[in-house]
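Agenda item 2: histidyl-adenosine monophosphate complex prediction
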Amino acid sequence: MQDTLPDDWPYWDLVMNTATRLARDYGFDRIDIPILEYTELFERGVGTASDVFVQKEMYTIAEPNGKDLSLRPEFTAGVTRAFLENGMGSWSQPVKLFMFGPIFRRERPQAGRYRQHSQFNAEIMGEMDPASDIEVMMLAMNLYRELGYRGLAFQLNSTGCRACRPAYVAKLSAYLRQFEDQLGDVDKERLAKNPLRVLDSKAPGMDELLADAPHLVDHLCDDCADHFGELRQLLDALDQRYTVNFRLVRGLDYYEKTVFEVWAEGIGAQAALCGGGRYDLSPEIGGHSVPSVGFGSGVERIILGLKEAGIEPPAAVEPPVLIAHFGGVTKVAATQLAFRLRHAGIGTWVAFASGRRSMKSQMREADKRAVRYVLVLGESEIEKGVIAVRPMQGGEQTIVDSTQIVTWLKEAGC
Ligand code: HAM
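Presented output:
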């Protein structure tokens, strides 16, 4: 878990503002949901065979009534609960929502993986058409493009549905069992609990071992095959680069049909900027069917990639004015002046340090903040009703009548 320091915020602003603008352009509305939900929601929604449960990643809080709460390990289950509880099934369909916020997973700490990370997440709920898969996929892709990423491509797969997946999983298990003694402990456990996840194994030798494994896309039912075919046609129509990756099986149980990631070149081991896909987990938590598709993208991970690619965010806007004073009555006048300028829309720094702060240290602050003007308020200026204005980017000091200061600064472009 980490602190987000002021120096990081220009990156966060860039990512969140770009994501918000694009999401709104694509017709998504913002929603916020609680950070805590009943643990049972995640058991049913995310699934007990998911990595989150198998690897005991949730932070759970025991409650006196026995209904434990957990810090959310992802957004999708909570959003589905919110959809049902707020009667969104009666809103105009589909419902398109986006959200930001912290996500908690007790993962093994490693580069680009944190126990608290922040996600930008978008969902289209109540729509089965593959065109909605494209909407969320392109929202993710165009976000990274606008931010300046290069070498972007979709990784795509279909995980089938309840009708066609079990027969495939049986075939895959039979294939994997031939090599059981060559599998590591993690993959042995996956083979027993969730054989699809073995496809995601990063263990050495797995490329060779999986070379002849059956591919799910060759075993889809007609419905899933049609969906996948139409999705590929739409991607081709939009000239999008994608790779059908039979090993793309995501760590959450709820996916059906489409699963995708966006990979970028040159961002090291954590090549996936986002992950998502299609699901219908409403029936798991007691609702009617709500076919949905969405993705989540880690903000920290996006920022890490921007830094590695040397992409700089626009510098934060600093106040253009600093008011220097000498303490005592001059501090009172400086405080009044600061709020007068701020009220007029002119960003202003003033040293509120108790006691005196030397003029030299105030000028150093002005330098550091790269302000355009320092307004000096000494006792003699106050007596005369004037302000000494020192331009910091060259030029002579000017004396300005204090009643005229707002007009003067505005005319100077502040
Ligand atoms: P996920 O793949 O588990 O999917 O996470 C989505 C994204 O969150 C990842 O691609 C990555 O950018 C970021 N992420 C995940 N774990 C970490 C971590 N420990 N540290 C830093 N970043 C991380 C989901 O969470 C699904 N709920 C996405 C979704 C929405 N599917 C459908 N709708």
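Discussion summary: The mean pLDDT is 93.
Owner for follow-up: CH.
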